[in-house]
């Protein structure tokens, strides 16, 4: 229904987008503190220790890694292994990945940046911008495919993180440094054009005003509700759909259910928007520099 509707085994968003890992069985016990060491060897962490974690396909993980839910905002990482091979054997320069509150950036041969949003126990990305230095296929292509692939996230007893898709695995080691993010425009400065599959030339338009939100879908206020945006979440209440002369009632109802789920929200400095209810991901752009993409929603 939406072009950015995503499932665990699909790459629904098409854009381009750590010190040596440990392959041997760890001698540390993973309990409530996954980094705390134990003087005696213990079994690898169990996926059952991490409720809500994405657990399908755990055979993709290296020994000692167990699935966890996403908790990487405002952290920086060094890529130390790709598919189990030490990074320094494939690439001379350090490759880093940074998660801000809304922005994912990483530097390989080129520098990349874009929005990400939490989706269930993992994350989904929007389109990424990148510099255009000519590069060998490694490491940028593999890293881009993992970060854009809604990877399984896992951790070992040393605190290293693994991001795994069906095709590739990245092992990350945390490094010092906090990501810097530019502020997004005020959320009520201008409405947002939502990029939905059936939008055509008249896509849904999302607007915010004084603790409320409204979505234009063939008529003003086709979907309305109360809203509070904080801590990466669009917390909604009293979401309703009004009777409207529309050729897409099924899509409108699906959009109403999407907003009733209080979706996660990320916004960028150029008006970029990314929303996820944990299943579907919807992107958008704020019409504050160019109002034409939202002009069809202005009440006549």
From TrEMBL:
Q: Locate the compositionally biased regions of type Low complexity.
A: 29-39
Record's keyword terms, sorted = Signal
Query: Which Pfam families does the record match to this protein?
Result: META
Top-level lineage group? Bacteria
The UniProt record lists the DUF306 domain at 73-168
Region of interest: Disordered = 29-55
**Alphabetical list of InterPro entries matching this protein:** DUF306_Meta_HslJ, HslJ-like_sf
Q: Where is the signal peptide?
A: 1-20
Official protein name in the record: META domain-containing protein
């Amino acid at each position: 229904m939406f072009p950015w509707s995503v499932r665990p085994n699909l790459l629904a968003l098409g854009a381009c987008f750590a010190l040596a890992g440990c392959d041997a069985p760890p001698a540390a016990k993973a309990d409530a503190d996954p980094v705390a060491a134990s003087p005696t060897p213990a079994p690898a962490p169990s996926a059952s220790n991490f409720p809500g974690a994405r657990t399908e396909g755990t055979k993709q993980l290296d020994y000692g890694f167990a699935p966890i839910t996403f908790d990487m905002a405002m952290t920086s990482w060094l890529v130390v292994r790709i598919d189990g091979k030490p990074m320094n054997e494939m690439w001379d320069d350090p490759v880093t990945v940074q998660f801000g509150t809304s922005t994912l950036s990483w530097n390989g041969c080129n520098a990349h940046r874009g929005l990400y949003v939490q989706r269930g126990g993992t994350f989904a990305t929007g389109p990424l911008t990148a510099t255009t230095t000519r590069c060998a296929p490694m490491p940028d292509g593999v890293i881009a495919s993992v970060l854009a692939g809604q990877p399984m996230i896992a951790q070992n007893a040393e605190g290293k993180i693994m991001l795994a898709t069906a095709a590739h695995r990245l092992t990350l080691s945390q490094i010092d440094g906090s990501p810097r993010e530019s502020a997004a425009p005020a959320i009520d400065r201008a409405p947002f054009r939502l990029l939905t599959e059936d939008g055509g030339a008249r896509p849904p338009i999302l607007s915010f005003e004084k603790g409320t939100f409204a979505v234009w879908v063939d008529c003003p206020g086709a979907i309305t509700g109360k809203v509070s945006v904080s801590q990466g979440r669009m917390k909604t209440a009293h979401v309703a759909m009004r009777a409207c002369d529309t050729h897409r009632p099924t899509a409108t109802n699906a959009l109403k259910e999407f907003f009733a789920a209080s979706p996660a929200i990320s916004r960028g400095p150029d008006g970029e928007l990314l929303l996820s209810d944990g299943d579907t991901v919807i992107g958008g752009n704020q019409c504050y520099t160019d109002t034409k993409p939202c002009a069809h929603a202005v009440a006549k």
